[in-house]
Amino acid sequence: MSFTVLSPAHFLVVAAVIFAIGTAGAILRRNALTLLMSVELMLNAANLLFLGYAREYGHAGGHAIAFFVMAIAAAEAAIGLAILIGVFRTRQTVEVDELDLLRDET
Amino acid sequence: MNILGDLGGLSPLWILVLTALAVLLLTVTGGDKRPAPGSSTHLAVLSLVGLFTAGVLLWNVEGTRTLFSGAIVIDGIGVLFGLTSLCGAFFGVVFAAAYLQEHGLSHGEFFSLVLFAAVGMLMVALAGDLLTLFIGIETMSLAVYVLAGYRRSSRRSQEAALKYFVYGAFASAFALFGIALLYGEVGRLSGTPALTFKALGAAFLGHEVSVAGFIGVAMLLCGLGFKIAAVPFHMWAPDVYEGAPTPSTAFMAVGIKTAAFAGVLRFVAATLIAGGERGTETAIQIFEVLGVLTMVLGNLLAIRQTQIKRMLAYSSIAHAGYVLVGVAAFIAEPKSYAVEAVAYYLFGYTAMTLGAFGVVLAFERGEDRRPDLPIERLAGTGHRYPAFGLAMALFMFSLAGIPPTAGFFGKLALFSAAVAAGRTSVVIIAVLASAIGAFYYLRVTVVMYMRAAGTEEKRVESAWLSAGLWLCAALTLVFGLLPDTYFAIAKRLVTGWLG
Lengths: 106, 499
Fold this sequence. Notes:
The complex is a heterodimer of chains A (106) and B (499). Helix content of chain A is 73%, strand content 0%. With 106 residues, chain A is mainly alpha-helical. Chain A has a single domain (8-92), classed as Helix Hairpins. Chain B has a domain at 278-499. Chain B has 499 residues and is mainly α. A two-stranded antiparallel sheet of chain B has the order 1-2. Chain B contains 20 helices and two strands. The mean pLDDT of chain B is 92. The interface between A and B is large, with 47 and 49 residues.
Protein backbone atom coordinates (compact mmCIF):
# COMPACT_ATOMS: atom_id res chain seq x y z
CA MET A 1 0.00 0.00 0.00
CA SER A 2 1.61 3.22 -1.11
CA PHE A 3 1.13 6.32 1.00
CA THR A 4 1.56 8.82 -1.79
CA VAL A 5 -1.51 7.83 -3.78
CA LEU A 6 -4.86 7.94 -2.06
CA SER A 7 -7.30 5.33 -3.31
CA PRO A 8 -10.99 4.88 -2.39
CA ALA A 9 -9.87 2.03 -0.15
CA HIS A 10 -8.01 4.48 2.11
CA PHE A 11 -11.07 6.68 2.44
CA LEU A 12 -13.28 3.68 2.97
CA VAL A 13 -11.13 2.32 5.78
CA VAL A 14 -10.82 5.66 7.59
CA ALA A 15 -14.53 6.41 7.18
CA ALA A 16 -15.49 2.93 8.38
CA VAL A 17 -13.27 3.28 11.45
CA ILE A 18 -14.73 6.69 12.33
CA PHE A 19 -18.24 5.36 11.74
CA ALA A 20 -17.52 2.37 13.98
CA ILE A 21 -16.23 4.67 16.75
CA GLY A 22 -19.38 6.77 16.43
CA THR A 23 -21.63 3.70 16.49
CA ALA A 24 -19.83 2.29 19.53
CA GLY A 25 -20.17 5.63 21.30
CA ALA A 26 -23.87 5.86 20.49
CA ILE A 27 -24.51 2.35 21.80
CA LEU A 28 -22.23 2.32 24.85
CA ARG A 29 -22.42 5.83 26.29
CA ARG A 30 -25.52 6.74 28.29
CA ASN A 31 -25.17 10.52 28.33
CA ALA A 32 -27.41 12.15 25.74
CA LEU A 33 -24.80 14.81 24.91
CA THR A 34 -22.19 12.17 24.16
CA LEU A 35 -24.77 10.34 22.10
CA LEU A 36 -25.31 13.47 20.04
CA MET A 37 -21.56 13.82 19.49
CA SER A 38 -21.30 10.18 18.44
CA VAL A 39 -24.05 10.62 15.89
CA GLU A 40 -22.25 13.69 14.50
CA LEU A 41 -19.16 11.52 14.15
CA MET A 42 -21.17 8.96 12.17
CA LEU A 43 -22.54 11.65 9.85
CA ASN A 44 -19.02 13.01 9.28
CA ALA A 45 -17.74 9.55 8.48
CA ALA A 46 -20.35 9.38 5.72
CA ASN A 47 -19.26 12.82 4.55
CA LEU A 48 -15.65 11.70 4.32
CA LEU A 49 -16.75 8.77 2.19
CA PHE A 50 -18.71 11.05 -0.14
CA LEU A 51 -15.67 13.30 -0.55
CA GLY A 52 -13.33 10.38 -1.11
CA TYR A 53 -15.48 8.95 -3.88
CA ALA A 54 -16.06 12.39 -5.40
CA ARG A 55 -12.28 12.88 -5.58
CA GLU A 56 -11.65 9.42 -6.97
CA TYR A 57 -14.17 9.71 -9.79
CA GLY A 58 -13.72 13.45 -10.40
CA HIS A 59 -17.41 14.04 -9.70
CA ALA A 60 -18.38 17.33 -8.07
CA GLY A 61 -21.70 15.92 -6.81
CA GLY A 62 -20.09 14.37 -3.75
CA HIS A 63 -18.79 17.75 -2.58
CA ALA A 64 -22.27 19.24 -2.91
CA ILE A 65 -23.77 16.36 -0.94
CA ALA A 66 -21.31 17.02 1.87
CA PHE A 67 -22.71 20.53 2.25
CA PHE A 68 -26.27 19.20 2.41
CA VAL A 69 -25.22 16.74 5.07
CA MET A 70 -23.54 19.46 7.11
CA ALA A 71 -26.68 21.58 6.98
CA ILE A 72 -28.80 18.63 8.08
CA ALA A 73 -26.36 17.80 10.88
CA ALA A 74 -26.59 21.38 12.11
CA ALA A 75 -30.40 21.30 12.09
CA GLU A 76 -30.37 17.98 13.87
CA ALA A 77 -27.98 19.26 16.54
CA ALA A 78 -30.16 22.34 17.10
CA ILE A 79 -33.29 20.26 17.63
CA GLY A 80 -31.45 17.68 19.72
CA LEU A 81 -29.98 20.30 22.04
CA ALA A 82 -33.38 21.97 22.40
CA ILE A 83 -34.90 18.65 23.46
CA LEU A 84 -31.98 18.04 25.84
CA ILE A 85 -32.44 21.43 27.50
CA GLY A 86 -36.14 20.66 27.98
CA VAL A 87 -35.30 17.34 29.61
CA PHE A 88 -32.59 18.88 31.79
CA ARG A 89 -34.97 21.55 33.08
CA THR A 90 -37.33 19.05 34.67
CA ARG A 91 -34.91 16.27 35.59
CA GLN A 92 -31.52 17.96 36.16
CA THR A 93 -29.89 15.16 34.19
CA VAL A 94 -29.48 14.02 30.58
CA GLU A 95 -28.53 10.42 31.32
CA VAL A 96 -30.78 8.35 29.05
CA ASP A 97 -31.07 5.59 31.68
CA GLU A 98 -32.88 8.04 33.94
CA LEU A 99 -35.69 8.28 31.40
CA ASP A 100 -37.88 5.45 32.61
CA LEU A 101 -41.43 6.79 32.80
CA LEU A 102 -42.33 5.09 29.53
CA ARG A 103 -41.69 1.36 29.36
CA ASP A 104 -43.40 -2.00 29.12
CA GLU A 105 -44.96 -3.23 32.33
CA THR A 106 -43.34 -6.40 33.57
CA MET B 1 -32.82 22.06 -17.13
CA ASN B 2 -35.42 24.78 -16.86
CA ILE B 3 -35.12 26.13 -13.32
CA LEU B 4 -38.32 28.15 -13.28
CA GLY B 5 -40.35 25.33 -14.78
CA ASP B 6 -38.86 22.89 -12.27
CA LEU B 7 -39.67 25.19 -9.38
CA GLY B 8 -43.20 25.47 -10.70
CA GLY B 9 -43.46 21.70 -10.78
CA LEU B 10 -42.77 21.71 -7.06
CA SER B 11 -45.89 23.79 -6.39
CA PRO B 12 -47.44 21.29 -3.90
CA LEU B 13 -44.35 21.63 -1.73
CA TRP B 14 -44.20 25.40 -2.08
CA ILE B 15 -47.82 25.77 -1.03
CA LEU B 16 -47.11 23.79 2.12
CA VAL B 17 -43.95 25.75 2.96
CA LEU B 18 -45.68 29.10 2.39
CA THR B 19 -48.71 28.06 4.44
CA ALA B 20 -46.45 26.88 7.25
CA LEU B 21 -44.58 30.20 7.24
CA ALA B 22 -47.84 32.17 7.12
CA VAL B 23 -49.22 30.20 10.08
CA LEU B 24 -46.01 30.79 12.01
CA LEU B 25 -46.05 34.49 11.21
CA LEU B 26 -49.69 34.86 12.27
CA THR B 27 -48.86 33.08 15.51
CA VAL B 28 -45.95 35.37 16.30
CA THR B 29 -47.78 38.57 15.42
CA GLY B 30 -50.82 37.36 17.37
CA GLY B 31 -48.89 37.72 20.62
CA ASP B 32 -47.67 35.03 22.96
CA LYS B 33 -50.85 34.72 25.01
CA ARG B 34 -52.56 31.44 25.59
CA PRO B 35 -55.21 30.80 22.97
CA ALA B 36 -58.69 31.59 24.12
CA PRO B 37 -61.34 29.10 22.97
CA GLY B 38 -61.97 29.53 19.26
CA SER B 39 -59.28 32.18 18.84
CA SER B 40 -57.02 30.01 16.71
CA THR B 41 -59.63 28.60 14.37
CA HIS B 42 -58.28 30.67 11.49
CA LEU B 43 -54.84 29.04 11.86
CA ALA B 44 -56.34 25.56 11.66
CA VAL B 45 -58.49 26.53 8.68
CA LEU B 46 -55.50 28.09 6.92
CA SER B 47 -53.41 24.95 7.47
CA LEU B 48 -56.21 22.73 6.19
CA VAL B 49 -56.67 24.90 3.10
CA GLY B 50 -52.91 24.70 2.44
CA LEU B 51 -52.90 20.92 2.77
CA PHE B 52 -55.97 20.59 0.59
CA THR B 53 -54.53 22.84 -2.13
CA ALA B 54 -51.28 20.88 -2.11
CA GLY B 55 -53.30 17.69 -2.49
CA VAL B 56 -55.26 19.08 -5.43
CA LEU B 57 -52.08 20.30 -7.16
CA LEU B 58 -50.46 16.91 -6.66
CA TRP B 59 -53.55 15.12 -7.93
CA ASN B 60 -53.61 17.23 -11.10
CA VAL B 61 -50.07 16.31 -12.19
CA GLU B 62 -50.37 14.40 -15.43
CA GLY B 63 -47.93 11.73 -16.50
CA THR B 64 -44.43 11.66 -15.08
CA ARG B 65 -42.45 14.86 -14.51
CA THR B 66 -38.74 14.76 -13.81
CA LEU B 67 -37.44 17.89 -12.09
CA PHE B 68 -33.96 19.13 -11.17
CA SER B 69 -32.05 16.58 -13.27
CA GLY B 70 -33.90 13.69 -11.67
CA ALA B 71 -33.69 14.76 -8.02
CA ILE B 72 -37.49 14.92 -7.89
CA VAL B 73 -39.73 12.63 -9.90
CA ILE B 74 -43.46 13.32 -9.75
CA ASP B 75 -44.93 10.02 -10.85
CA GLY B 76 -47.80 7.73 -10.00
CA ILE B 77 -46.40 6.12 -6.90
CA GLY B 78 -45.27 9.47 -5.54
CA VAL B 79 -48.73 10.97 -6.06
CA LEU B 80 -50.44 7.93 -4.53
CA PHE B 81 -48.34 7.81 -1.36
CA GLY B 82 -47.99 11.58 -1.17
CA LEU B 83 -51.76 12.01 -1.09
CA THR B 84 -52.08 9.46 1.70
CA SER B 85 -49.43 11.31 3.73
CA LEU B 86 -51.24 14.60 3.15
CA CYS B 87 -54.43 12.91 4.32
CA GLY B 88 -52.61 11.99 7.55
CA ALA B 89 -51.43 15.58 7.99
CA PHE B 90 -54.95 16.87 7.32
CA PHE B 91 -56.48 14.80 10.12
CA GLY B 92 -53.44 15.53 12.28
CA VAL B 93 -54.36 19.22 12.11
CA VAL B 94 -58.07 18.54 12.69
CA PHE B 95 -57.45 16.45 15.82
CA ALA B 96 -54.73 18.82 17.01
CA ALA B 97 -57.18 21.72 16.84
CA ALA B 98 -59.40 19.89 19.34
CA TYR B 99 -56.54 18.67 21.53
CA LEU B 100 -54.54 21.89 21.75
CA GLN B 101 -57.60 23.89 22.71
CA GLU B 102 -58.61 21.34 25.34
CA HIS B 103 -55.16 21.40 26.93
CA GLY B 104 -54.46 25.11 26.53
CA LEU B 105 -51.41 24.63 24.30
CA SER B 106 -50.45 27.11 21.60
CA HIS B 107 -51.76 26.21 18.16
CA GLY B 108 -49.62 27.90 15.52
CA GLU B 109 -46.33 26.11 16.08
CA PHE B 110 -48.04 22.74 16.05
CA PHE B 111 -49.78 23.34 12.74
CA SER B 112 -46.68 24.73 11.06
CA LEU B 113 -44.61 21.77 12.26
CA VAL B 114 -47.21 19.40 10.82
CA LEU B 115 -47.02 21.29 7.52
CA PHE B 116 -43.22 21.19 7.49
CA ALA B 117 -43.31 17.48 8.22
CA ALA B 118 -45.78 17.07 5.36
CA VAL B 119 -43.26 18.77 3.05
CA GLY B 120 -40.67 16.20 4.13
CA MET B 121 -43.13 13.36 3.52
CA LEU B 122 -43.86 14.62 0.00
CA MET B 123 -40.11 14.87 -0.63
CA VAL B 124 -39.68 11.24 0.40
CA ALA B 125 -42.63 10.13 -1.73
CA LEU B 126 -41.43 12.12 -4.76
CA ALA B 127 -37.70 11.48 -4.32
CA GLY B 128 -35.84 10.76 -7.53
CA ASP B 129 -32.48 10.26 -5.87
CA LEU B 130 -31.12 9.08 -2.56
CA LEU B 131 -30.06 12.54 -1.40
CA THR B 132 -33.61 13.89 -1.82
CA LEU B 133 -34.83 10.80 -0.01
CA PHE B 134 -32.46 11.49 2.88
CA ILE B 135 -33.27 15.19 3.09
CA GLY B 136 -36.98 14.35 3.01
CA ILE B 137 -36.61 11.80 5.80
CA GLU B 138 -34.72 14.32 7.89
CA THR B 139 -37.20 17.13 7.20
CA MET B 140 -40.15 15.07 8.35
CA SER B 141 -38.29 13.50 11.27
CA LEU B 142 -36.91 16.75 12.68
CA ALA B 143 -40.39 18.28 12.69
CA VAL B 144 -41.90 15.20 14.29
CA TYR B 145 -39.22 15.01 17.04
CA VAL B 146 -40.46 18.42 18.12
CA LEU B 147 -44.11 17.40 17.80
CA ALA B 148 -43.42 14.42 20.09
CA GLY B 149 -42.08 16.79 22.74
CA TYR B 150 -44.74 19.44 22.18
CA ARG B 151 -45.97 19.35 25.79
CA ARG B 152 -42.81 20.90 27.09
CA SER B 153 -43.88 20.79 30.73
CA SER B 154 -44.78 17.10 30.61
CA ARG B 155 -41.98 14.74 31.57
CA ARG B 156 -43.51 11.96 29.51
CA SER B 157 -43.67 14.09 26.39
CA GLN B 158 -40.05 15.16 26.86
CA GLU B 159 -38.96 11.60 27.36
CA ALA B 160 -40.76 10.56 24.18
CA ALA B 161 -39.05 13.34 22.21
CA LEU B 162 -35.59 12.49 23.51
CA LYS B 163 -35.99 8.77 22.89
CA TYR B 164 -37.33 9.38 19.39
CA PHE B 165 -34.52 11.80 18.65
CA VAL B 166 -31.74 9.52 19.90
CA TYR B 167 -32.96 6.46 18.00
CA GLY B 168 -33.92 8.54 14.96
CA ALA B 169 -30.61 10.36 14.64
CA PHE B 170 -28.75 7.06 14.97
CA ALA B 171 -30.89 5.47 12.25
CA SER B 172 -30.44 8.49 9.95
CA ALA B 173 -26.66 8.30 10.30
CA PHE B 174 -26.86 4.61 9.38
CA ALA B 175 -28.95 5.39 6.31
CA LEU B 176 -26.57 8.16 5.25
CA PHE B 177 -23.51 5.92 5.46
CA GLY B 178 -25.37 3.40 3.34
CA ILE B 179 -26.10 6.11 0.77
CA ALA B 180 -22.40 7.06 0.72
CA LEU B 181 -21.44 3.45 0.05
CA LEU B 182 -24.00 3.25 -2.78
CA TYR B 183 -22.64 6.49 -4.24
CA GLY B 184 -19.22 4.89 -4.53
CA GLU B 185 -20.67 1.60 -5.74
CA VAL B 186 -22.49 3.27 -8.65
CA GLY B 187 -19.20 5.04 -9.45
CA ARG B 188 -17.33 1.74 -9.49
CA LEU B 189 -19.92 -0.03 -11.63
CA SER B 190 -20.69 2.68 -14.18
CA GLY B 191 -17.71 5.06 -14.04
CA THR B 192 -19.68 8.07 -12.75
CA PRO B 193 -20.99 8.09 -9.21
CA ALA B 194 -24.63 9.13 -8.96
CA LEU B 195 -27.51 8.83 -6.55
CA THR B 196 -30.61 8.85 -8.76
CA PHE B 197 -32.77 5.74 -8.60
CA LYS B 198 -32.41 5.53 -12.38
CA ALA B 199 -28.60 5.44 -12.24
CA LEU B 200 -28.78 3.02 -9.33
CA GLY B 201 -31.05 0.71 -11.30
CA ALA B 202 -28.85 0.91 -14.40
CA ALA B 203 -25.72 0.17 -12.36
CA PHE B 204 -27.27 -2.73 -10.44
CA LEU B 205 -28.72 -4.33 -13.60
CA GLY B 206 -26.42 -6.92 -15.05
CA HIS B 207 -23.37 -6.00 -12.97
CA GLU B 208 -21.73 -7.88 -10.14
CA VAL B 209 -22.47 -5.78 -7.04
CA SER B 210 -19.64 -5.75 -4.49
CA VAL B 211 -19.93 -6.38 -0.76
CA ALA B 212 -19.77 -2.64 -0.10
CA GLY B 213 -22.79 -2.16 -2.36
CA PHE B 214 -24.80 -4.78 -0.50
CA ILE B 215 -23.82 -3.30 2.85
CA GLY B 216 -24.99 0.07 1.51
CA VAL B 217 -28.38 -1.37 0.51
CA ALA B 218 -28.73 -3.08 3.89
CA MET B 219 -27.79 0.04 5.88
CA LEU B 220 -30.25 2.25 4.01
CA LEU B 221 -32.98 -0.35 4.49
CA CYS B 222 -32.17 -0.43 8.23
CA GLY B 223 -32.66 3.34 8.36
CA LEU B 224 -36.00 3.07 6.56
CA GLY B 225 -36.97 0.06 8.71
CA PHE B 226 -36.60 2.29 11.73
CA LYS B 227 -39.01 4.83 10.26
CA ILE B 228 -41.67 2.20 9.54
CA ALA B 229 -41.04 0.65 13.00
CA ALA B 230 -40.31 -2.86 11.71
CA VAL B 231 -38.91 -5.42 14.16
CA PRO B 232 -35.99 -5.31 15.17
CA PHE B 233 -35.97 -1.51 14.74
CA HIS B 234 -39.21 -0.96 16.65
CA MET B 235 -38.00 -0.42 20.24
CA TRP B 236 -38.66 3.31 20.16
CA ALA B 237 -42.25 3.11 18.91
CA PRO B 238 -44.22 2.09 22.04
CA ASP B 239 -42.47 4.61 24.29
CA VAL B 240 -42.72 7.46 21.81
CA TYR B 241 -46.33 6.73 20.85
CA GLU B 242 -47.34 6.59 24.50
CA GLY B 243 -45.51 9.70 25.64
CA ALA B 244 -46.15 12.02 22.70
CA PRO B 245 -49.29 14.19 22.66
CA THR B 246 -52.05 12.15 20.99
CA PRO B 247 -52.41 14.19 17.76
CA SER B 248 -48.63 13.95 17.25
CA THR B 249 -48.82 10.20 17.79
CA ALA B 250 -51.66 9.86 15.30
CA PHE B 251 -49.79 11.91 12.72
CA MET B 252 -46.48 10.10 13.09
CA ALA B 253 -48.15 6.69 13.11
CA VAL B 254 -49.66 7.22 9.67
CA GLY B 255 -47.71 9.92 7.81
CA ILE B 256 -44.19 8.74 8.50
CA LYS B 257 -45.02 5.11 7.87
CA THR B 258 -46.69 5.86 4.52
CA ALA B 259 -43.86 8.10 3.30
CA ALA B 260 -41.19 5.66 4.43
CA PHE B 261 -42.92 2.79 2.60
CA ALA B 262 -42.91 4.89 -0.58
CA GLY B 263 -39.15 5.26 -0.09
CA VAL B 264 -38.77 1.52 0.51
CA LEU B 265 -40.71 0.67 -2.67
CA ARG B 266 -38.69 3.07 -4.81
CA PHE B 267 -35.41 1.87 -3.37
CA VAL B 268 -36.31 -1.79 -3.68
CA ALA B 269 -37.45 -1.27 -7.28
CA ALA B 270 -34.10 0.34 -8.14
CA THR B 271 -31.79 -2.12 -6.41
CA LEU B 272 -33.25 -5.51 -5.53
CA ILE B 273 -35.41 -5.82 -8.65
CA ALA B 274 -33.48 -3.56 -11.02
CA GLY B 275 -34.91 -3.63 -14.52
CA GLY B 276 -38.18 -5.26 -13.41
CA GLU B 277 -36.59 -8.67 -12.89
CA ARG B 278 -37.64 -10.91 -10.05
CA GLY B 279 -35.52 -10.33 -6.94
CA THR B 280 -33.25 -13.01 -5.50
CA GLU B 281 -34.72 -15.57 -3.14
CA THR B 282 -32.56 -14.17 -0.33
CA ALA B 283 -34.00 -10.68 -0.75
CA ILE B 284 -37.58 -11.98 -0.73
CA GLN B 285 -36.93 -14.11 2.33
CA ILE B 286 -35.30 -11.26 4.26
CA PHE B 287 -38.40 -9.12 3.75
CA GLU B 288 -40.71 -12.00 4.61
CA VAL B 289 -38.83 -12.87 7.78
CA LEU B 290 -38.84 -9.21 8.83
CA GLY B 291 -42.55 -8.99 8.05
CA VAL B 292 -43.42 -12.15 9.98
CA LEU B 293 -41.33 -11.13 13.00
CA THR B 294 -42.87 -7.67 12.96
CA MET B 295 -46.48 -8.82 12.82
CA VAL B 296 -46.13 -11.69 15.28
CA LEU B 297 -44.14 -9.75 17.87
CA GLY B 298 -46.28 -6.63 17.45
CA ASN B 299 -49.51 -8.57 17.94
CA LEU B 300 -48.24 -10.69 20.84
CA LEU B 301 -46.92 -7.70 22.75
CA ALA B 302 -50.06 -5.68 22.06
CA ILE B 303 -52.16 -8.24 23.95
CA ARG B 304 -50.39 -7.51 27.24
CA GLN B 305 -50.83 -3.75 27.10
CA THR B 306 -53.14 -1.95 29.50
CA GLN B 307 -52.53 1.54 28.10
CA ILE B 308 -54.55 2.15 24.96
CA LYS B 309 -51.93 4.30 23.22
CA ARG B 310 -49.25 1.71 23.88
CA MET B 311 -51.53 -1.00 22.54
CA LEU B 312 -52.14 1.03 19.37
CA ALA B 313 -48.35 1.49 19.06
CA TYR B 314 -47.79 -2.27 19.01
CA SER B 315 -50.74 -2.57 16.65
CA SER B 316 -49.10 -0.12 14.26
CA ILE B 317 -45.91 -2.20 14.43
CA ALA B 318 -47.96 -5.27 13.49
CA HIS B 319 -49.53 -3.45 10.54
CA ALA B 320 -46.06 -2.57 9.24
CA GLY B 321 -45.45 -6.31 9.23
CA TYR B 322 -48.42 -7.00 6.96
CA VAL B 323 -47.26 -4.31 4.56
CA LEU B 324 -43.76 -5.81 4.51
CA VAL B 325 -45.32 -9.06 3.26
CA GLY B 326 -46.75 -7.00 0.40
CA VAL B 327 -43.31 -5.53 -0.31
CA ALA B 328 -41.86 -9.06 -0.35
CA ALA B 329 -44.57 -10.05 -2.84
CA PHE B 330 -43.54 -7.08 -4.98
CA ILE B 331 -39.93 -8.28 -4.97
CA ALA B 332 -41.03 -11.82 -5.84
CA GLU B 333 -43.27 -10.61 -8.66
CA PRO B 334 -42.60 -6.99 -9.71
CA LYS B 335 -46.11 -6.26 -10.98
CA SER B 336 -48.32 -3.33 -10.22
CA TYR B 337 -50.90 -5.22 -8.12
CA ALA B 338 -48.54 -5.69 -5.16
CA VAL B 339 -47.85 -1.94 -5.08
CA GLU B 340 -51.57 -1.19 -5.38
CA ALA B 341 -52.24 -3.50 -2.44
CA VAL B 342 -49.57 -1.79 -0.33
CA ALA B 343 -50.96 1.64 -1.23
CA TYR B 344 -54.55 0.63 -0.47
CA TYR B 345 -53.54 -0.95 2.81
CA LEU B 346 -51.66 2.15 3.92
CA PHE B 347 -54.59 4.34 2.95
CA GLY B 348 -57.02 2.23 4.95
CA TYR B 349 -54.52 2.06 7.81
CA THR B 350 -54.29 5.85 7.75
CA ALA B 351 -58.06 6.30 8.06
CA MET B 352 -58.63 3.73 10.78
CA THR B 353 -55.55 4.51 12.88
CA LEU B 354 -56.29 8.23 12.84
CA GLY B 355 -59.86 7.44 13.85
CA ALA B 356 -58.76 5.20 16.73
CA PHE B 357 -56.38 7.88 18.06
CA GLY B 358 -59.17 10.43 17.61
CA VAL B 359 -61.38 8.43 19.97
CA VAL B 360 -58.49 8.13 22.45
CA LEU B 361 -58.11 11.89 22.27
CA ALA B 362 -61.81 12.32 23.01
CA PHE B 363 -61.29 10.87 26.49
CA GLU B 364 -58.19 12.88 27.38
CA ARG B 365 -59.72 15.87 29.05
CA GLY B 366 -57.53 18.78 30.01
CA GLU B 367 -59.10 19.32 33.41
CA ASP B 368 -58.60 15.70 34.47
CA ARG B 369 -54.82 16.24 34.41
CA ARG B 370 -54.11 12.57 33.97
CA PRO B 371 -50.98 11.56 32.08
CA ASP B 372 -52.29 8.29 30.67
CA LEU B 373 -55.41 6.48 29.48
CA PRO B 374 -55.76 2.81 30.51
CA ILE B 375 -58.17 0.77 28.40
CA GLU B 376 -60.23 0.05 31.52
CA ARG B 377 -61.22 3.68 31.80
CA LEU B 378 -63.21 3.42 28.59
CA ALA B 379 -65.65 1.11 30.41
CA GLY B 380 -69.25 2.04 29.69
CA THR B 381 -68.39 4.82 27.27
CA GLY B 382 -69.99 2.91 24.39
CA HIS B 383 -73.44 3.34 25.96
CA ARG B 384 -72.95 6.87 27.19
CA TYR B 385 -71.64 8.19 23.86
CA PRO B 386 -73.24 5.96 21.22
CA ALA B 387 -71.70 7.75 18.23
CA PHE B 388 -68.18 7.54 19.67
CA GLY B 389 -68.73 3.94 20.66
CA LEU B 390 -69.89 2.98 17.19
CA ALA B 391 -67.00 4.84 15.57
CA MET B 392 -64.45 3.13 17.83
CA ALA B 393 -66.06 -0.26 17.13
CA LEU B 394 -65.77 0.45 13.40
CA PHE B 395 -62.08 1.41 13.68
CA MET B 396 -61.32 -1.63 15.84
CA PHE B 397 -63.14 -3.98 13.42
CA SER B 398 -61.22 -2.42 10.57
CA LEU B 399 -57.87 -2.73 12.35
CA ALA B 400 -58.72 -6.36 13.12
CA GLY B 401 -59.59 -6.94 9.46
CA ILE B 402 -63.30 -7.69 9.70
CA PRO B 403 -65.44 -6.96 6.59
CA PRO B 404 -66.83 -4.71 5.21
CA THR B 405 -64.10 -2.25 6.24
CA ALA B 406 -61.00 -0.89 4.55
CA GLY B 407 -58.86 -2.96 6.90
CA PHE B 408 -60.38 -6.20 5.62
CA PHE B 409 -59.97 -5.42 1.92
CA GLY B 410 -56.45 -4.14 2.57
CA LYS B 411 -55.43 -7.44 4.12
CA LEU B 412 -57.24 -9.33 1.36
CA ALA B 413 -55.38 -7.39 -1.33
CA LEU B 414 -51.99 -7.81 0.37
CA PHE B 415 -52.43 -11.51 1.00
CA SER B 416 -53.78 -12.14 -2.53
CA ALA B 417 -50.73 -10.35 -3.92
CA ALA B 418 -48.48 -12.61 -1.85
CA VAL B 419 -50.37 -15.73 -2.96
CA ALA B 420 -50.22 -14.62 -6.60
CA ALA B 421 -46.47 -14.24 -6.19
CA GLY B 422 -46.35 -17.83 -4.92
CA ARG B 423 -45.60 -17.06 -1.26
CA THR B 424 -48.42 -19.05 0.34
CA SER B 425 -46.62 -20.12 3.53
CA VAL B 426 -46.02 -16.56 4.68
CA VAL B 427 -49.69 -15.72 4.06
CA ILE B 428 -50.76 -18.53 6.40
CA ILE B 429 -48.61 -17.05 9.18
CA ALA B 430 -49.98 -13.58 8.42
CA VAL B 431 -53.60 -14.78 8.69
CA LEU B 432 -52.83 -16.47 12.02
CA ALA B 433 -51.12 -13.30 13.26
CA SER B 434 -54.12 -11.17 12.36
CA ALA B 435 -56.32 -13.64 14.26
CA ILE B 436 -54.22 -12.88 17.36
CA GLY B 437 -54.69 -9.21 16.57
CA ALA B 438 -58.48 -9.52 16.51
CA PHE B 439 -58.38 -10.48 20.19
CA TYR B 440 -57.00 -7.24 21.56
CA TYR B 441 -58.94 -5.01 19.16
CA LEU B 442 -62.23 -6.62 20.10
CA ARG B 443 -61.32 -6.38 23.79
CA VAL B 444 -61.48 -2.58 23.50
CA THR B 445 -65.00 -2.82 22.08
CA VAL B 446 -66.00 -5.26 24.81
CA VAL B 447 -64.71 -2.89 27.50
CA MET B 448 -66.56 0.03 25.95
CA TYR B 449 -69.91 -1.76 25.74
CA MET B 450 -70.03 -4.59 28.26
CA ARG B 451 -67.97 -3.52 31.25
CA ALA B 452 -69.72 -1.58 33.99
CA ALA B 453 -68.28 1.89 34.40
CA GLY B 454 -66.33 2.55 37.60
CA THR B 455 -66.17 6.28 37.04
CA GLU B 456 -68.31 8.34 34.71
CA GLU B 457 -65.73 9.18 32.08
CA LYS B 458 -66.55 12.44 30.33
CA ARG B 459 -65.51 13.30 26.83
CA VAL B 460 -63.94 16.29 25.16
CA GLU B 461 -66.55 18.54 23.56
CA SER B 462 -65.22 19.77 20.25
CA ALA B 463 -66.70 20.24 16.80
CA TRP B 464 -63.27 19.59 15.27
CA LEU B 465 -63.05 16.23 16.96
CA SER B 466 -66.54 15.11 15.90
CA ALA B 467 -65.97 16.23 12.31
CA GLY B 468 -62.61 14.44 12.16
CA LEU B 469 -64.05 11.24 13.55
CA TRP B 470 -67.00 11.27 11.15
CA LEU B 471 -64.66 11.77 8.20
CA CYS B 472 -62.31 8.98 9.31
CA ALA B 473 -65.26 6.64 9.84
CA ALA B 474 -66.64 7.57 6.41
CA LEU B 475 -63.29 6.87 4.73
CA THR B 476 -62.91 3.53 6.53
CA LEU B 477 -66.39 2.45 5.54
CA VAL B 478 -66.67 3.92 2.03
CA PHE B 479 -63.33 2.56 0.85
CA GLY B 480 -64.22 -0.72 2.54
CA LEU B 481 -67.49 -0.95 0.62
CA LEU B 482 -66.08 0.37 -2.66
CA PRO B 483 -62.43 -0.78 -2.80
CA ASP B 484 -62.62 -0.94 -6.61
CA THR B 485 -62.77 2.85 -6.85
CA TYR B 486 -59.42 3.11 -5.13
CA PHE B 487 -57.87 0.25 -7.06
CA ALA B 488 -58.91 1.77 -10.40
CA ILE B 489 -57.09 5.00 -9.53
CA ALA B 490 -54.12 3.16 -8.04
CA LYS B 491 -53.77 0.92 -11.08
CA ARG B 492 -53.57 3.89 -13.42
CA LEU B 493 -50.99 5.67 -11.25
CA VAL B 494 -48.80 2.67 -10.46
CA THR B 495 -48.74 1.32 -14.01
CA GLY B 496 -47.34 4.68 -15.08
CA TRP B 497 -44.56 4.30 -12.55
CA LEU B 498 -43.58 0.73 -13.40
CA GLY B 499 -43.67 1.57 -17.13
